[in-house]
């Protein structure tokens, strides 16, 4: 199967993991949501990300999910989140999923890293552990990881570890980080693919500054796909109009600790998964929040009609 | 001068502190921005908040700012942020500003508080230090303070310290927190005023759940005023339309560490302050960000015309 | 096999996991160090703790280590650390090790818990996940977990979850916590066993305040055993003399991120394990530190002779 | 008055600030404790450090304390802690105390700094604010500040800001940091003075690795003075014997949040201050802890007699 590389672009949706109300993996819904993402135009998927509830899986479940999604994806690229507290576990899972046909692995820095050299050293250890033939996505998400990666050390990591092919960019604020990476490349640094996260909250600006697309989730993944497409085609105003229409919902989804429940609710409402249930300790939306999201979904439909 | 109380409502704008390019306080602009806020419909102001660059002032400057704003405010209520690492400094500044005519003081919890009882104890110490005749705004802003205040301990604080008249609500996610405070009041707990922060990012939902208004800043404070007014009048759809129109800019302002520069840029563009300069170590917007904000401001004008 | 209960006492040594220089588990040394701990008087062992390098193991290795230690322990109680980012993984490992004959499991709170109710809720979820027939050791180690457990919430947890039989006490400072738990018990609260950690740094005071023993590691575990024995026998001065003799080394071992390398160096010097190697990303002692530890070990021998 | 420089050595005691039971500054005790420190052999003092309860003072009190101590010190060097949330406050206090005759100022990094370049930039801003004629002590104390300064960035700061003359070294573990600074100097980097903190917990090893002395506090400051003197004279065994005798108390004092109460209790017992009271929100020792410290103080006297 094709691997991701420094020119990968488009939208890699961070896939949810569907559960039934009892907390068991809902394999049919997993198939269905994979289909749904690709029908809406996704280039690829990323499984076992934070919003895929990865840390709640057992190792056996993790591998089974990757297998199932790969089988369903029909050859389209699947990136697998392999972040774990220890290098041995990262190495073991990486070997398994690359054997199965994954397109690359994603690694976020553990929260214990507290200096620039420690972050740099860590990615060196990861690359040593998994081998430099495996394409790596560096997930740069300080709000969640508590690890702030400076521009300087990110560039040293990029220069020193060529198997890091992509940055999942979700520093916040991070628009300048994109501009600085592209400026460094203009000055001769090797290229990395930049796919943006944060639920797409800054996607138009990120594309304008040189991002290659998005790697994030949202209840309406077609928005991500179309904004990336329109921005790539130079249709900035249309892209922003479409983005703005979805923004009240994007914003509602950015609530930390609640966003995934919002996203799963939208996906369930749209028929992409059977139940919006999260595995414990996650909790679903209460009635009041359901009303709020449903109201915003209805307004979105009205607004989309106005735009057409 | 009137004090804030448990029924205070409307919009208390978190005032910026204008500086010239050299970092000196621009007193004329301070007068001008006070006028601007009130012309746009503010009920009151809050000075020396985080977004007022309070920690960058000397104590002498802090008092001078309060004096100047009180003189300009013509009797409208001015809340003063007095958060400081030590109780003695909080006590001293509180005594000074209440003597000058402030309507109350705002206190955020210091980052060292790491258990519920420690948070509770702290507010007890604050009330003892400043005396229970001074109305207190409890600022609940975990993203910035790193102190998470649980519903349970917030309710114990409200019950035990009656001089805490208001919660500046900017937990995130925090919609349920509002619902729970109002539910507790329905069950007999004493009332507190809830004014919402976070740049207004969830203002329509917050008002619908029982907030009394907003205490936050934004380059277009009239949006805050009008959303609060429309929601109070039951015109939810109109409120949301107006809110949605500003949302691309609100979102742009939520970038931590960058938001104040965005806000000051908008205020300077609108003539409310002479310079968008921040005092060091703050930095202004670079050229690229200026372009992005200006584009969003232009789009806002277009959208507002469509709505009228 | 016997389970731990609320009256468990003595010394449960936190076992190291021996590796060879290449990072592979050294099974012979694992047998040898188990023997060593029991020869020095340990009541039981705790495996897969933080200082057992648990997060660096794969799940398969974790189970294999438990099996090996149980086989070697000859029926003496083995507690297993099962802390993991997700409840499913905790449940799976717990079921496996309890089936194999473990005496109980140890669970530290994940760093994401940031309010008292969240900590309480978490232990409820753990007990639900693993079943209330499994004896649980609550590891209270804020310096490492970043989770501060207040006296109040610890007592609510003890009251609400009877299968939590033991507190591994290593809050720092935490002497009062022991006194308060014992005071609550005197007032009718159910008893828990308290075994102390922190490398034994406050062991004499902890025993005097009502601790039942130690659950920690040190290059000279016989010190832990003898201090607990002497304190229990009321021979406070002898206990303190013995403790003081080891204190320069205990102190040297308290260096965060370095302590395990110090401990393994001492164990290797004493023949309890073949190599002091840590698994990556851990690093061993440099030459200078080796000299410092060796000097302190030599001084200890001299001092012990003076005492006899 | 003489300023500190890159060759400053000896013991700068971190002075406590004595209060009466009501929380008012006890000026007579301040004089007395200054005399006490110098009688015990201190080279200089550092006032308004964390253990001087600096954040609990008003600005007026801070300046008054500096004046009083300078008047009493008879020309011996006094360093002043000026850490504050904002640069303007740092600048103002620095100007005041240097005018009064301070020997230099001490600045710890604010907790908001989360990358190596941010830390570097901050010290640049501090030097710009206060002017490069003022000698600066960089306080490197991650356990308290939450800011981890890597060896690499510390060296860049030393190279780029020549007015930083001294490092108050209390990283933990930090022995290698001393060795690396001295190695860099051997390779041509400009010299800095290194005075060690952490209550002296690693003082013998720190001196052996090239520290110039101590800048910390302890109830028995003569231990710091004599260990530094003996180590400088090459009498390592004697130094370590003396150190070991005090170690049970040093250890007891390392309890975070409790250590200052322990220290003040010892100073009050020894007649150096009238009351062990801390200013709120600090709390004194309870009866049980008093008993524990008194017991250790008595044991110390016995042990010192054995050594002589």
TrEMBL record, chains A, B, C, D:
<dbReference type="InterPro" id="IPR002220">
    <property type="entry name" value="DapA-like"/>
</dbReference>
<comment type="similarity">
    <text>Belongs to the DapA family.</text>
</comment>
<dbReference type="GO" id="GO:0005829">
    <property type="term" value="C:cytosol"/>
</dbReference>
<feature type="binding site">
    <location>
        <position position="215"/>
    </location>
    <ligand>
        <name>pyruvate</name>
    </ligand>
</feature>
<dbReference type="Pfam" id="PF00701">
    <property type="entry name" value="DHDPS"/>
</dbReference>
<keyword id="KW-0456">Lyase</keyword>
<protein>
    <submittedName>
        <fullName>Dihydrodipicolinate synthase family protein</fullName>
    </submittedName>
</protein>
<dbReference type="InterPro" id="IPR013785">
    <property type="entry name" value="Aldolase_TIM"/>
</dbReference>
<dbReference type="GO" id="GO:0008840">
    <property type="term" value="F:4-hydroxy-tetrahydrodipicolinate synthase activity"/>
</dbReference>
């Amino acid at each position: 199967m094709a691997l991701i590389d420094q020119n990968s672009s488009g939208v890699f949706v961070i896939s949810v993991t569907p559960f039934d109300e009892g907390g068991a993996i809902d394999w049919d819904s997993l198939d269905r949501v994979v289909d749904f993402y690709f029908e809406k135009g996704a280039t690829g998927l990323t499984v076992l990300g934070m919003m895929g509830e990865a840390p709640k899986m057992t190792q056996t479940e993790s591998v089974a999910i990757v297998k199932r999604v790969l089988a369903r994806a029909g050859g389209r690229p699947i990136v697998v989140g392999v972040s774990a507290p220890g290098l041995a576990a990262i190495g073991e899972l990486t070997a398994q999923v690359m054997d199965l046909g994954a397109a690359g692995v994603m690694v976020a820095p553990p929260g214990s890293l507290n200096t620039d050299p420690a972050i740099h050293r860590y990615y060196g250890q990861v690359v040593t552990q998994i081998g430099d033939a495996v394409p790596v996505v560096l997930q740069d998400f300080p709000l969640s990881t508590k690890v702030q990666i400076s521009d300087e050390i990110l560039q040293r990591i990029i220069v020193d570890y060529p198997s890091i092919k992509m940055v999942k960019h979700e520093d916040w604020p991070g628009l300048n980080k994109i501009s600085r990476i592209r400026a460094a490349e203009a000055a001769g640094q090797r290229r990395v693919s930049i796919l943006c996260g944060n639920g797409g909250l800054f996607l138009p600006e990120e594309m304008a500054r040189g991002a290659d697309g998005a790697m994030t989730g949202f209840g309406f993944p077609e928005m991500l796909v179309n904004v990336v497409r329109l921005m790539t085609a130079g249709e900035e105003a249309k892209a922003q109009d479409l983005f703005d229409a979805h923004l009240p919902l994007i914003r509602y989804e950015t609530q930390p600790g609640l966003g995934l429940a919002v996203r799963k609710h939208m996906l369930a409402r749209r028929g992409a998964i059977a139940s919006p249930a999260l595995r414990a300790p996650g909790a679903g939306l209460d009635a009041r929040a359901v009303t709020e999201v449903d109201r915003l979904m209805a307004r979105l439909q009205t607004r989309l009609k106005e735009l057409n």
